[in-house]
Amino acid sequence: MHRRITWHKLPYHLLHPLAFFCIGLIYIYSAPHFEASDNVPHVGVIKWVAETRSLPVQSAKHSHLYAQQASQPPLYYLLMSFVWSAFDTSDFDQFLQLNPLALVGDPERLGNRNLIFYRQPYPSNLSGSSLALYAIRLLTLGLATITVAAIFQSARTVIPDKLGFAFLATSLATFNPMFLFISTSISNDVLVTTLASIACWLALLTLRHGFDTRRSIMLALLIALATLSKLSGLVLAPAVGLAGLWLLLRTGDRRGFIILIGAIALACLLLTGWWFLRNIALYDEFFGTNTMLDFFGRRKITLLPLLTEEFEGLRISYWGLFGVHSILTNRIHYLLMDALSLIGVIGLIVFLAKNRRDTFMLSAAGFLAIYLAIGSAMLIWWTLQTSASIGRLLFPFMTSICILLALGLRTLRIPPLLVALPMCAFSIVAPLVYIIPQYHHPPQVEQVPDRATETYVRWSDIALVGYEAPAPARWAPGDEIPLTLYWQPLKATEALHALFISLINADGESLATIDTFPGWGALPTTRWEDDAIYQDDYILQIPKDAEGFSNVQLHIGWYPFPAGANISPQLETGEPIRAYTIPIGAFVDGETRETLGADATKDGTVFGESIRLVAWRFSEGRVLELAWQLTREIAGDLRVFAIVFKDRFQLDEPFDIVTQADGLPPVHLDFLLTGESFTTRHEFPLPAAYEGEHSIYVGWYNEGIGQRLTAPYLQNMLELPDIAFSALEQ
User: Fold this and answer.
1) Could you read off the pLDDT of 447-483 as tens digits, one per residue?
2) Can you say how many angstroms the Cα of residue 276 is from the centroid of all Cα atoms in its chain?
């Protein structure tokens, strides 16, 4: 006899926790240690507690180790110190090699995402301190898995007979890439979130079933332990207290209310009182927050700029901002999550209107909303004092966020799978697409590939044997220039050298620069292998506010880090060169420029049916400036000639050249568009104390073929009026 499957009896309460844990393993592998916000000082506190058997004191003396995290409540660090003590971590100082050029909190720029130098990020190092950190991260992931289970139970408590609702609410946490990322890092945010999510579940049970002494005691313990994990856990106390007050008014159960409030007060006194007394003794304050601000840094900002300028960053970092606030996902992901949130909020308003007579539904939604509101108010208060518009700080209130959004989405009949399946797929793909590429070491190749340009130039013991660069082109603000360099270290070095790649104009001024270690920060020269050839990929970002109108080239060089002089490059023959550059085209910012001004003499001659002389000006007794405009696009290696004859030029008559000053346009004509203008400058060399009056003849010629562009004048030369030349000091 076959047993019929009853789908509603399947263990759905295990589905999300199991999926979350499995996906979390991908994040543990993808993100190296320390590559999340504040992970280094979190580990520093754990290490301090494990090795000294005492709690750290906030001071500048050990700022390199635990920074501002010494002011945090200690429960997470106490728990993880036992894990740390179980491993041989004597290699920690060698393991923690900070990348001094790491880009922290700047997701718009590329490269240098690694906070420290990793000997082998993939595959991971499973020994010593690294193994201890993996054990801590695995245990932290286990705590976050409990959070997912608690959110599922909370959703089932709110609407017991709708499994799809619980599935939807839990999916908003299970498949949140940022929650997965933080849950696999080393952070006390995870523990306080776990304890808060369980407390929310118990509070919702209390609202549905009434006061229960055992449940009240558990709630009190959870609130105290959450507070001892992070101060945001203290937000539970007023939220649960208000829920209890509502239940008292509805049921009249004074005994139950007194037990709940008394248990919370007693648990907080016994479990956290010593911590607050310690703060008073050490820092002369109850919470220790002022001391943390003194160390971490304060700021002054008003509420309106905070909400208008930093709300986007808060939203983005709630759904997915990896690294140390430095790795964005796809913009479409954020737009979709914004749309989902907006739909959920609209639906929640409809839900409250439809259920305005359902006492439990209103009380459950009210409790979750009040908890989220108090938590948000505390976050705003904190952010007004220091830079903290970070989405992970909302995770302790995740139960509220997930259930309230799910109530709205369910009310508008959004299918749970329509939300869950894309979020699940993206949460799996995100670490592979966005995280891993940021920490890979540059690959080794056997030889420079055929597609690359072979070259040889060396800086001390570092040789550039090839490169791949785009063909010369017209570049504009905001463009990105890809570049691949092939390096060959000639011998091992213990010196740390930094690489710079600059986009420079004709005057040698830098428009954009990358300062980095090889591998875009991933592999310092101290860890290069002899004679290996490394393929080193970069993208040079031109700032959106860059200004200029000039031919440009890439300037590549090295210097001893941190403040050594640039190393002089040499060719393979040993011949020194001033600098190594790669022509890359021209940079044009698109701004309309005043060429010579109102005092210039106007003209209208067109050369080669493409280049019109707009105006000219003579100054300083020897300097001629010519303003040009392209009437149609033209290509070729074109130059302007400006010749001064002793007498007026006559065809088939002898002539005597006094001086000549040819010039190049500031931007190669290949890269200019019809209608664009430019100026050429010609400074005539003259003998000392020279004075005389002569005509100047100007025109264009193609240097490659030695042919002049046509113009309606003798020998294709435009004669400018007689001009007084002088080599005397002006």
Assistant:
1) 999 999 999 999 989 999 999 999 999 999 999 999 9
2) 36
155 CA to centre of own chain? 35
Q: How far is CA 560 from the centre of its chain?
A: 26
Q: Please tell me the distance from the alpha carbon of residue 147 to that of residue 145, in angstroms, as a whole number.
A: 5
Name the strand (E) or helix (H) holding 484.
Answer: strand 480-489
If one counts every other C-beta atom within 10 angstroms of the C-beta of residue 515, the result is 15
State yes or no: pLDDT of 664 exceeds 70.
yes
How far apart CA 542 and CA 589 sit, in angstroms, is: 11
The H-assigned helical ranges of 284-358 are: 289-296, 303-319, 331-354
Which helix (H) or strand (E) covers residue 206, if one does? helix 188-209
Residue 425's contacts (CB-CB under 8 Å, 6 or more residues apart) are none
Q: For residue 507, which amino acid is it? A: D
Spatial distance between the Cα atoms of 132 and 135, rounded to a whole number of angstroms: 5
Neighbours of 673 (CB within 10 A): 11
Confidence tier at 4 by pLDDT (50, 70, 90): low
What whole-number distance in Å separates Cα of residue 508 and Cα of residue 510?
6
> Can you spell out the DSSP letters for 22-87?
HHHHHHHHHS-TT-STTHHHHHHHHHHHHHHSS-----GGGHHHHGGGGGS-SHHHHHHHHHHHTS
Neighbour count for residue 401 (Cβ, 10 Å): 22
CB 396 within 8 A of CB 192: yes
The dihedral of CA 244, 247, 252, 255: what is its sign? negative
- From residue 124, give the alpha-carbon distance in Å to each of 44, 149, 456, 493, 578: 21, 29, 35, 25, 42
Question: Distance between CA atoms of 240 and 224, rounded to whole angstroms?
Answer: 12
> What is the DSSP code string of 617-656?
EEETTTEEEEEEEESS---S-EEEEEEEESS---TTS---
Which helix (H) or strand (E) segment holds residue 660: the answer is strand 657-660
| 683 vs 623: CA distance, rounded Å | 4
Distance CA 513, CA 541 (A): 8
Of 154, 234, 647, give the one whose Cα is nearest residue 403. Answer: 154
The token pair at 25 is 């393993």
* Structure-token match 């003794």, residue found: 281
Reported confidence tier of residue 596, pLDDT bands at 50, 70, 90: confident
Burial of 181-202, coded b for 16+ CB within 10 Å and e otherwise, reads bbbbbbbbbbbbbbbbbbbbbb
Provide the b/e sequence for 624-657 (b: ≥16 CB within 10 Å): bbbbbbbeeebebebebbbbbbeeebeeeeeeee
